[in-house]
Design goal:
The chain has 19 helices and 24 strands. The protein is α/β, with parallel strands linked by helices and 559 residues long. The protein has three domains: 368 residues, TIM Barrel (Alpha-Beta Barrel), CATH 3.20.20; 69 residues, Oligo-1,6-glucosidase, domain 2, CATH 3.90.400.10; 71 residues, Sandwich (Immunoglobulin-like). An eight-stranded parallel β-barrel has the order 1-2-5-9-10-11-12-16. A five-stranded antiparallel β-sheet has the order 17-18-19-24-21. 48% of the residues are buried.
Length: 559
């Protein structure tokens, strides 16, 4: 207890130098009692996320509720994923797909099955028995305006929650903050009544929390602990760069934001050191690395710029975009215990913000992948399209992209539906406009799975859905048997133009991964070691030549 007390006291004094430790002392007494009742964690459990293959889903859109999700555990096992990232599941009016939380300790009623709250615990137990970890989203920067905290904060009478949010008599403070939802929100301030405004970085119905109030910090820690006790394996910390605000700054990536995260990490590590914090920091890698700290902040972070460069590499037939973005000039080394999370698509747009790409890349990717004008997001800053739509349902290119992601360093994330080529959902997009009042094109990439239709498609070996699913399943199986691909280092290989190739190596051995990004067969015979074995894909053999077909991949074990 002495160690955690010293750690939290040090961080507390940085954040609140003029306050005493009364509130902290009460909190420390709480977690001491909790810790005494927690089951010890084995050392081997602490870095499970390094060998994970993550599957990201909305529970209701995937299969109705937690009972429906539990029923599909065999489907997920068959695919080979071993971690589920549940997109927002906490109580919410659902004006922003659940990222507008109205109660941190309560699950959404529509996600509960016949057993109510017990349906979540039954799902969690089933997932764990199947060897599948479960993490979920928790928005820590803001809440819904329907949260009890906000309703009480808005009362004119002074109370405990009055400064849980950021209030002002005008809309002029924090004027250096950029608009995150340009084109949808024209200000970071929302007028509440004749005399007051409240601050928000996202939609106007999502007021930002005020971490200058220590009670906000401690209550958020209590929210983490509540779900750790339930058995949740980790949290995707949504909108993490915006926690601390200071006048005259961009209010992003500020030093005290990192102090807050260190505080969270110390608390969660103390309660259960196998629980992970995943940073949703929409920033360049050099900034995201800071959210890992000295392995004392988040365990992992998303590599946002890698994603658009994979698309650029495939469109241009050049390995350079991937090689350049993974160079240490762009992607710094990270602590040994930390990990990048990589992805091709997610619940948001294919982001082309200038923190990830330059103007030239933005134009090039937009021109090559925004096949319909209605997919445009934030005036050219992104493309609202699923993986299959971006590649015009070309199974070879879809699988090529998956091969790149699954064989590069990092923990790969498969977005629900992409494993069988799910298209954009226009009906869901239109439905959400009626719910939110905003024309948010990101809703094209969401929508429900029609399981009856899908099962017929998967049972037809000739369908594109079956071909994509079957090949992806093979890749995942090979990756899971071969941790060189999850934890090994990378060394890019010199191959002919049009080929992206690299060695992955560790003390366990060496792999050579070859991707043909071009429309032509390429002779790779002289580049393939004689003493080697193909572990995924195939090469065409003709006399002394070994050719790789257009838009195909081969993974080779070097013996």
């Amino acid at each position: 207890m002495t160690v955690i007390r010293n750690e939290l006291s040090k961080l507390w004094k940085i954040l609140y130098p003029e306050l005493g430790t009364k509130h902290l002392d009460v909190f420390l007494a709480e977690i001491k009692e909790l810790k005494e009742n927690m089951k010890p964690v084995q050392e081997a459990e602490k870095m499970w996320y390094k060998d994970a293959v993550v599957y990201s889903l909305y529970v209701d859109l995937f299969n109705k509720n937690f009972d429906g999700l539990k029923q599909k555990i065999p489907y997920l096992q068959n695919l080979g994923v071993n971690c589920l990232w549940l997109l927002p599941v906490l109580d919410s009016p659902m004006k922003d797909a659940g990222f507008d939380i109205s109660d941190y300790r309560k699950l959404r009623e529509d996600l509960l099955g016949e057993a109510g709250e017990d349906s979540f615990e039954a799902f969690l137990q089933t997932a764990h028995k199947a060897g599948i970890k479960v993490i979920f989203d928790i928005a820590i920067n803001h809440t819904s305006d329907q949260h009890t905290w906000f309703k009480r904060s808005a009362l004119l009478e002074k109370n405990k929650y009055s400064d849980y949010y950021i209030w002002s008599e005008n809309d002029r403070a924090y004027s250096d903050c950029r608009l995150l939802f340009k084109g949808m929100c024209d200000s970071n301030w929302e007028k509440y009544d004749d005399n007051r405004y409240y601050f928000h970085r996202f939609f106007e119905f999502q007021p930002d929390l005020n971490y200058r109030n220590p009670n906000v910090l401690l209550d958020m820690c209590r929210n983490f602990i509540f779900w750790i006790e339930k058995g949740v394996d980790g949290f995707r910390a949504d909108a993490i760069p915006y926690l601390w605000k200071e006048e005259g700054t961009s209010c992003e990536n500020l030093d005290n934001t990192h102090v807050i995260i260190k505080f969270f990490r110390s608390v969660t590590d103390y309660i259960n050191p196998s629980v992970i914090l995943l940073a949703e920091a929409c920033q360049p890698p050099a900034e995201v690395v800071k959210y890992m700290g000295d392995a004392d902040e988040c365990h992992a972070g998303y590599h946002f710029p890698l994603m658009p460069q994979i698309f650029k590499a495939i469109a241009s037939g050049s390995a350079d975009p991937v090689k350049n973005v993974l160079h240490t000039d762009v992607t710094p080394e990270i602590p040994e215990s930390c990990q990048w999370f990589t992805f091709l698509r997610c619940h948001d747009e294919l982001s082309l913000e200038l923190v990830y790409v330059n103007e030239e890349d933005r134009k090039y990717i937009h021109e090559n992948y925004c096949h319909k004008p209605e997919w445009d997001f934030r005036m050219g800053e992104g493309i609202s399209a699923r993986l299959s739509e971006l590649f015009k349902s070309d199974a070879d290119k879809i699988l090529l992209a998956f091969s790149v992601m699954l064989s590069l360093p990092g923990t790969p994330v498969v977005y629900y539906g992409d494993e069988f080529g799910k298209p954009n959902d226009e009906d869901y997009y239109k439905y959400q406009i009626n719910i939110t009042g905003h024309n948010d094109t990101r809703n094209y990439v969401r929508g429900k799975i029609d399981w009856e239709k899908l099962e017929k498609q998967l049972n037809n070996a000739e369908s594109s859905e079956s071909k994509i699913y079957t090949e992806l399943k093979k890749m995942i199986a090979v990756r899971k048997r071969n941790n060189i691909l999850s934890t090994g280092k990378i060394d890019f290989a010199e191959f002919p133009d049009g080929v992206l190739a690299y060695y992955r190596f560790s003390s366990a051995g060496k792999n050579l991964v070859i991707h043909n990004l071009s429309e032509r067969e390429i002779d790779v015979n002289k580049f393939v070691p004689e003493n080697s074995k193909i572990i995924y894909g195939k090469l065409l053999k003709s006399n002394t030549r070994l050719n790789i077909k257009p838009f195909k991949s081969v993974w080779i074990e070097v013996l």
